[in-house]
Amino acid sequence: MKNGIRKNRYKDNLAGYLFILPNFLGVFVFILFPLLISLAMVFMDWDYLRGYEGIDWIGLDNFKQLFQDDYFWQSLKNNVIFTGVTVPAAMLVGLIVAVFLNSFVYLKNFLRVLFFLPYVSSIVAISVVWSVMYNSSEGPINQFLRGLGVDNVPGWLASQHWALPAIIIMVAWTYTGYTMVLYMAGIQGIPKDLYEAAEVDGASKLRQFFSITIPRLKPTSFMIAITLIISTFQVFAAVSVMTKGGPLNSTMVLSYYIYIQAFQYYKVGYAATVSWALFLIILLITLVQWKGQKKWQDEF
Q1: CB 226 within 8 A of CB 179
Q2: Terminus-to-terminus CA distance in the chain, angstroms?
Q3: How many Cα neighbours within 13 Å face the side chain of 140?
Q4: Any stretches that span the bilayer, and where are they (predicted)?
């Protein structure tokens, strides 16, 4: 009897393992194996156009080059500026839109879908459309500014000083729908009794917003901030389509710098080193998230 039970249990376990085997194979082939290969490439200089003969083991030379590479530090600086402006802007605008849609506007579902649409649309298509809008001579944005009487309109993507802000505006606009949806969900989870009690006490709508809405949305804001920071640190498509890192490296970010090193200069080992540097930055952000969850866990 016991042998029969063990045999049936073994068959059940085997069936379960066979069901999840394709997923494990996919994770190993497409994630773990490339990850290990990229870690090995950190210690080599490999011109992959020459095949295996182009492999040259150089030890820690790639790390030495990394710390001495001005282009890497410029890319990291641009990444920090990009993330530091895009994330707060998207969160602030998303919160304002969420509050108005939740309180004062009809057709909420239609407008919510309308605002969310850019986030789920192709970033390549969005980048192409915004590139046309940013055209310094015939773009609708500068035409509108000239109509307002602005003589020295920005050069946008052609300007060293305006290219990065132009991409920041576009990406922040794209993420606004994402933050808006999450904030609306958070707002709808706030008990209405709190607002009714505040009205009885004579609190204005603005006071209710700062004293009830914002404190109650801290867990939502924390989650949005972490996900957007990780996402914006990996920005690639917008830069690739709109500026290709220019002009004069003013929009060069780490993801695009990795692409250039690997597929234009054929420095696969050094590209892998920059990739792992980016991975460690994102890992640090994730560790901060885990630590921060302990502070907010009583709010979830």
Answers
A1: no
A2: 48
A3: 5
A4: 20-44, 80-101, 113-133, 162-185, 222-243, 263-288
Contact criterion met (CB below 8 Å) for 91 and 214:
no
Q: Quick check: 298 pLDDT over 60?
A: no
Supply 156's token pair: 């946008």
| Residue 263: C-alpha distances to residues 46, 55, 75, 159, 266 (Å) | 12, 16, 17, 26, 5
Domain-embedded: residue 55: no
Q: pLDDT of 222-235, one tens digit each?
A: 889 889 998 999 99
- Smallest Cα–Cα separation from 175: which of 183, 163, 185? 183
Q: Are residues 13 and 75 in the same domain?
A: no
Which DSSP string do the residues of 96-158 spell out, in sequence order?
Answer: HHHHHHHHT-S-HHHHHHHHHHHHHS-HHHHHHHHHHHT-TTT-HHHHHHHHTT-SS---GGG
* Alpha helix stretches (DSSP H) within the chain: 2-27, 33-41, 61-68, 70-103, 108-120, 123-133, 140-147, 163-188, 192-200, 205-208, 214-216, 218-233, 237-242, 254-263, 268-296
Residues 256, 120 share a domain: yes
Are 56 and 45 a contacting pair, CB within 8 Å? Answer: yes
Model pTM score = 0.86
Q: 95-109, pLDDT tens digit by residue?
A: 999 988 887 777 777
Half-sphere exposure of 299 (CA within 13 A, CB side): 17
In a domain, 52, yes or no: no
- The answer to whether residues 241 and 122 belong to one domain is yes
Q: How many domains does the chain have?
A: 2
Full residue range of the structural domain in which residue 225 is found: 64-299
